[in-house]
Specification:
Number of helices: 10
CATH class of the largest domain: Mainly Alpha
Largest sheet: none
Oligomer: single chain
Distance between the termini: 64 Å
Number of domains: 2
Radius of gyration: 19 Å
CATH topology of the largest domain: Tetracycline Repressor, domain 2
Helix content: 55-70%
Mean pLDDT: 90
CATH architecture of the largest domain: Orthogonal Bundle
Low-confidence stretches: 1-7
Length: 197
């Protein structure tokens, strides 16, 4: 039995997001339709619209979980990271790549431009603090540079590593079985070689 639209269920918004998180993990971002999320949550296909009037709002709520998860992982890893900013950037880069490769559907969803631009649930405000941390650490390693530009280039580099590694292209091209050397090379490219710092 499914709930009708006239019988609201207080815990349904959380359940819909939970189902969406499970669905994106199992089948990827393309599987996130309102109808499929509602079906798996055991409600009518119109029920989600009571809390998420548009598909983008529900997708934003699911993506927000991804950003919260990534931020939590970064915070936990940085608590045990070396005190120097270069060491912290290495840890942050590893967390980012591990998350991207271990949560490919969520990772794809999180960086959809239409969601970030939509303004739903303050998604941009959820995603920007992590970039702010990246820029702050870059500024401590390269105080002479425009930290936001260097951080943006480094982030784009990490994003490219994640995408190409996920597709299997970088393993083939580099002959590597671990992305760690690529991470260190990216850091060297944007921050300068570690031994000179």
């Amino acid at each position: 039995m499914t709930l009708s639209e006239s019988e609201p269920e207080p815990g349904l918004p959380t359940r819909l997001v939970d189902v969406g998180v499970e669905l994106v993990a199992a089948e990827g971002a393309g599987a996130l339709t309102l109808r499929e999320i509602a079906r798996r949550a055991g409600v009518s296909h119109g029920a989600p619209r009571r809390w998420f009037p548009t598909h983008l709002e529900l997708l934003s709520a699911i993506a927000r979980r991804g950003f919260t998860d990534l931020a939590g992982r970064a915070e936990a890893a940085l608590a045990d990271a070396p005190p120097d900013p270069r060491g912290q950037l290495t840890v942050l880069g590893r967390v980012y790549l591990d998350f991207a490769l271990g949560n490919r559907g969520m990772y794809e969803l999180m960086f959809r431009h239409d969601l970030l631009e939509s303004g739903h649930l303050g998604l941009r405000e959820t995603s920007l603090p992590l970039f702010g941390l990246l820029a702050e650490l870059v500024s401590r390693v390269r105080p002479e540079a425009d930290a936001r530009l260097v951080a943006g280039a480094l982030w784009a580099n990490l994003h490219g590593i994640a995408q190409l590694w996920g597709w299997g292209s970088l393993q083939l091209a580099s002959g590597g079985a671990d992305f760690a050397p690529l991470l260190h090379t990216a850091l060297d490219a944007h921050l300068g070689p570690e031994e000179t710092r």
